[in-house]
Write a structure and sequence with these properties.
The protein is mainly alpha-helical. Helix content is 72%, strand content 4%.
């Protein structure tokens, strides 16, 4: 059942990508903005962030659990429910679309538009980036979000079913909204950031292994082991290092956030990436996804 639900989700995503209107996560984001307005005031403590996190995810998880374990607990309805829920929690085609919206202007020598499109998917300042820096930043976000938008959601779906996929997507969304280390969110967003780190720990390492297996395995694995822990994120570092190594390129380096330079190590091994490497990174993710499908099929067949 899990394999066929996964296949249904990927087919739906390939056909329709993310819903452009009335996506459940948009409604969830509006709800979370109201929670933040209520709980994130002056002299906020981490406890307020924990309460906001629980109010954000627990009611939704209870609803999904009732549907999963009571209403849609067998047969065709279970297959459809699981496949549709997983489809709504992954962003396979969306990830590719965002990357191509940056790569195509670069091929057309339109660096300004490429910077603008990059700014829609990263938090760093993009106005003064060179073409090479735009390419590197794009590949970084593609590799990192390959885990966040695809593999981690699939992992938790395999472990807990629809409840697991929804739990992961909600927490990951909260981390994207609240998980900043600035004055506004450093205390309030602490719980969301830590919970996201926890949920991503195993999937990120499986994703890193998959990236290595989908490219130059020896170099990808070595970069993961040697460089992954040097990144500020305990999960993004292994994923990006393995992906860059597997692609035989070097990404990373310092970046500017809100006018301040943040020192970051280089990841991978090889020359600086070119525009074509954005397409190669997407291909790496697709091959890694095929590996996951094959592994799930084998597990279902023999266990």
């Amino acid at each position: 059942m899990i394999f066929w639900q996964l296949l249904l989700a990927l087919v739906l995503d390939a056909l329709f990508a993310e819903p452009r209107k009335n996506h459940p996560l948009v409604v969830f984001g509006d709800y979370c903005n109201r929670l933040e307005a209520r709980y994130n005031g002056e002299n906020v403590q981490r406890a307020q962030g924990v309460r906001a996190l629980l109010w954000a995810i627990v009611p939704i998880l209870l609803i999904v659990a009732v549907l999963q374990y009571w209403l849609f607990c067998g047969g065709l309805l279970q297959w459809l429910f699981g496949g549709v829920v997983l489809y709504l929690t992954i962003g396979w085609q969306s990830l590719g679309d965002h990357a191509l919206q940056i790569a195509r202007p670069l091929l057309e020598r339109d660096l300004v538009r490429a910077r603008e499109n990059l700014a829609m998917v990263v938090s760093r300042d993009t106005e003064a980036l060179s073409e090479g820096e735009v390419v590197s930043a794009t590949i970084e976000t593609v590799l990192e979000n390959g885990n966040d938008a695809i593999f981690a959601a699939i992992f938790w779906f395999i472990v807990l079913g629809p409840v697991g996929a929804v739990l992961y997507r909600l927490v990951n969304t909260l981390d994207a909204m609240w998980g900043y280390r600035n004055e506004r969110f450093v205390e309030f967003g602490w719980a969301a950031a830590k919970f996201d780190d926890l949920l991503n720990w195993i999937p990120a390492r499986l994703c890193a292994l998959s990236y290595a297996a989908a490219g130059n395995f020896a170099r990808g694995y070595a970069c993961w082991q040697q460089q992954g822990n040097g990144w500020k994120s305990p999960n993004a570092g292994p994923v990006m290092a393995a992906g860059a190594g597997a692609l035989e390129i070097t990404i990373g380096g310092n970046a500017v956030y809100e006018g301040a330079v943040e020192e970051k190590p280089s990841l991978g091994e090889g020359p600086a990436p070119q525009v074509r490497d954005i397409y190669r990174a997407l291909g790496l993710i697709n091959r890694a996804l095929l590996i996951w499908l094959a592994v799930v099929a084998v597990l279902v067949l023999f266990f």
